[in-house]
Automatic annotation (TrEMBL):
A molecular-function term among this protein's GO annotations: ATP-dependent peptidase activity
Domain Lon N-terminal per the UniProt entry, residue ranges: 10-200
Lineage: Bacteria, Pseudomonadati, Pseudomonadota, Alphaproteobacteria, Holosporales
Signal peptide segment: none
Domain Lon proteolytic: 593-774
Protein name per the record: Lon protease
Organism from which the protein derives: Holospora obtusa F1
Length: 778
């Protein structure tokens, strides 16, 4: 039986870290082995007699580890044993003064009473305590573990009970023990106030910290939002600027025609309606840039001073009288008609005769811009006319691109520029459309005022453009296109002309390019002559020659830079030292001065003129004819025509008819790898066969050219200038040629005419009479 006044003996449970207060209940795990035995014994008593004193060890007194002098008298409500572990449910009843002998199982407990204190003091202290408690709970409102501290006053009988309940929540065991030991309620409350005020300051500090952290986070977020907004605004204003810039550009583009301006403004309107992210924007902007970059109304003033233009042309090239004259005619017409209509010329000639460079010189002479398009290999109509803008990656056609002002800030050519259509004969047509058809429109003065490029969409006026096309072969240009151009033939140069070009243009140009003085680099005339004859005799133009001189200059420069030389005047015997063995060493054209069944013909090729040997032999057979030498159909027919013409004239030439029955004839054209065709070898074949059958030798320095009919007529041939130049270059002294070519004599350089004995023949009999004078007596 529990008596709150009497001193009694009770079993004692020793706890390591738990302090129990009166009016509180809780579970306690017994770790002290003797204590669990005590619990076992007490548990055997009836519930109303199960009293124990709970006392804690004073850990701060490390040496002795004695018990605190004050403990709590408890009722043992329940005990649970699992293996060696023991748990008890205790209900605190009263503070007691504990007296016990060390290690004893029982102790004497003297009940302790709370001091009488002034109620106002108690109330005042309690109010302070409650304030702190409220602040504490407010600060920890998120933490549910503190809810147990909330005071529902009606649950409690008095303030002491409340104080015990709050004290139970303190973790610090020493503070708890201090409260338990204190007899004054006010003192106990003061301990709690102290604890709570400390906790409140911590809470407040934590709150300030989190407020600051939150504030910082908020500031950071606001800063992020602000920056993002700024960026968006900047981007939008950039886009606006872009539109604004473009609008300004269009307004300032005074060179635009009305139609072009309207188109540009319409596109700008479209641009404004598009959402910022639309992929169409860049397409429209590039279209507008392109539209503005075209010359439209911009026209460069033409240099109409005939003398000055003539000077520029003469200074740039030698031997271009025909071209110069044509350009002066063009200027003269412009002066008179006050028109700015362009022209369409086509320079036809072998490579390296200056077609491209003379076009540039024309632009300079006329004070026009020069721009060019390489047409070689172009097989798509869209390359000329552009792609429609609906295609991904659509681009304008090459014609308009060539007229476009290049990159930003660069010069925009005038709409009357010289536009070079290089290698128009090498255009190809494939399944993607025929570029010729598009070019027909470009070059037709009737249509080109409204040239339609698919990309540009609106018509563009090409009338003022000075078109210059270049081609190696006239007949490779389709006839309709050829008809739209004025063809100017630039044929190959004679040796003398080449020497002149080299001396007046090529060498000075190269020396200027490499910053060489005459003391440092020069070529003697004989070296130049040998360079031509032994290294580049077969070329019609001077590109190869220029490359050789260039190579010589580079090699001399290397020596100059290495300090091996101070200057070099290259003579003929030094050529092989610099350029290696000549490709065409000097030699006699033929081993024998005259031969039977061998004749020299003259051929025209893409790269100029050349000589061509015709050989015939008789072999035992049955009157058959064999042809070898990679011949084309026309050439084969020429052999047949010549042979039959000869058979027709058997009696005239006193030939043995048996020959044509008992012998086979083999006609051969050496250099098998080179294809040969054309009718101009006809006369040569006839004379070769006659020489073979009549056994009359032909001088190796005589050449012949002319088409033959079955009746022996000699017809006109083409490429006479190239052929005669080749004849001179190959040391031929006499050329038999058609009477009908006499009209071309004006084109033949004087130097060539002087070096050759030209024999004009109307009929093959005349050629025979000249070549085999015996027959002339017939
Ligand atoms: N009559 C000339 N006077 C001065 N230089 C010339 C003459 N002919 C050609 N040249 C020079 O020869 C070089 C080759 O000429 P260009 O490139 O104009 O030849 P091209 O006929 O256009 O050849 P291709 O058909 O291969 O394009 C250039 O350096 C050019 O200046």
């Amino acid at each position: 039986m529990f008596d709150s006044e009497s001193v009694k003996e009770y079993p004692i449970i020793i706890s390591e870290d738990v302090v129990f207060f009166p009016f509180t209940a809780g579970v306690l795990a017994i770790k002290h082995a003797p204590s669990s035995e005590i619990v076992q014994n007490v548990s055997k008593q009836p519930v109303e007699d199960r009293y124990v004193v709970l006392c804690s060890k004073n850990k701060s007194d490390k040496k002795t580890s004695k018990l605190f002098p004050v403990g709590t008298l408890c009722r043992l409500r329940q005990s649970i044993f699992v293996h060696n572990d023991c748990q008890v449910v205790l209900e605190g009843l009263q503070r007691v003064q504990v007296n016990c002998v060390e290690d004893s199982e029982r102790c004497t407990a003297v009940p302790l009473h709370t001091l009488e204190e002034a109620p106002a003091k108690i109330e005042a202290t309690f109010r302070v305590l409650r304030d702190y408690l409220e602040q504490y709970l407010k600060l920890n409102s998120q933490d549910t573990t503190h809810r147990a501290l909330a005071i529902e006053e009606k649950e409690f009988v008095n303030i002491e009970q409340i104080v015990y309940k709050i004290s139970g929540n303190i973790h610090d065991i020493e503070k708890k023990q201090k409260i338990l030991q204190s007899d004054s309620l006010v003192a106990r409350m003061k301990i709690l106030i102290q604890w709570l005020s400390f906790e409140v300051s911590i809470g407040k500090f934590k709150e300030t910290l989190s407020i600051k952290a939150a504030q910082k986070m908020r500031n950071d977020y606001q800063e992020y939002v602000r920056k993002t907004k700024e960026e968006i605004i900047k981007r939008e204003s950039e886009d606006q600027n872009l539109y604004y810039d473009m609008e300004k550009k269009i307004q300032n583009a005074k060179h635009l025609t009305q139609e072009a301006k309207k188109q540009a403004e319409n596109e700008l309107k479209k641009l404004r309606l598009l959402p910022q992210s639309s992929p169409e924007i860049s397409g429209i902007l590039s279209y507008l840039e392109f539209l503005i970059s075209l010359p439209w109304k911009k026209v460069n003033p033409l240099n109409k001073d005939l003398n000055q233009a003539n000077k520029v042309l003469e200074k740039s090239h030698s031997g271009m009288e025909k071209v110069n004259e044509r350009i002066l005619e063009f200027l003269a017409v412009h002066r008179r008609r006050k028109t700015d209509q362009g022209a369409v010329l086509c320079f036809v000639g072998p490579p390296g005769v200056g077609k491209t460079s003379v076009a540039k010189a024309i632009a300079k002479a006329l004070n026009l811009d020069f721009t060019s398009i390489a047409l070689g290999g172009c097989g798509d109509e869209a390359e000329i006319r552009g792609h429609r803008r609906t295609y991904i990656g659509a681009t304008p056609g090459r014609i308009l691109k060539a007229l476009q002002g290049r990159e930003k800030g660069r010069h925009r050519p005038g709409s009357n520029a010289v536009l070079l259509l290089d290698e128009i004969d090498k255009l190809g047509a494939d399944r993607r459309g025929d570029p010729y058809a598009a070019l027909l429109e470009v070059l037709d003065p009737e249509q080109n005022s409204e040239f339609r490029d698919h990309y540009l969409e609106i018509p563009y006026d090409l009338r003022k453009i000075f078109f210059i096309a270049t081609a190696n072969k006239k007949y490779d240009i389709p006839a309709p296109l050829r008809d739209r151009m004025e063809l100017i033939h630039l044929s190959g140069y004679t040796t003398q002309e080449k020497i002149q070009i080299a001396q007046h243009h090529l060498i000075p140009k190269i020396m200027k390019e490499y910053c060489l003085t005459e003391e440092q680099f020069s070529l003697t005339s004989s070296a130049l002559y040998d360079l031509l004859i032994q290294y580049t005799p077969k070329e019609a133009g001077v590109r190869g020659l220029k490359e050789r001189i260039d190579a010589l200059a580079r090699k001399v420069i290397l020596k100059l830079e290495r300090g091996i030389l101070e200057g070099e005047i290259i003579d003929r015997d030094q050529l092989s030292e610099y350029l290696g063995t000549p490709l065409y060493p000097p030699k006699n054209l033929y081993n024998q001065p005259e031969e039977i069944g061998v004749m020299t013909g003259l051929a025209w090729t893409e790269v100029g003129g050349d000589i061509m040997k015709i050989e015939a032999v008789q072999v035992i057979g049955k009157g058959k004819t064999f042809l070898t030498g990679k011949l084309g159909d026309i050439m084969k027919e020429s052999v047949q025509v010549a042979l039959n013409c000869l058979k027709e004239n058997i009696e005239y030439y006193h030939l043995d008819p048996q020959f044509f029955i008992e012998k086979d004839i083999h006609v051969h054209f050496p250099e098998n790898a080179i294809p040969k065709d054309g009718p101009s070898a006809g006369a040569g074949i006839f004379l070769t066969l006659l020489s073979l059958i009549s056994k009359k030798p032909v001088p190796s320095t005589t050449a012949v050219t002319g088409e033959i009919t079955t009746k022996g007529e000699i017809l006109r041939i083409g490429g006479l200038k190239e052929k005669l130049i080749a004849a001179v270059n190959h040391e031929i002294d006499t050329v038999l040629l058609p009477e009908r070519n006499r009209q071309d004599l004006d084109d033949i350089p004087e130097e060539v005419k002087q070096k050759l004995n030209l024999v004009f023949v109307r009929h093959i009999h005349q050629a025979v009479s000249h070549l085999f004078p015996d027959y002339g007596k017939l």
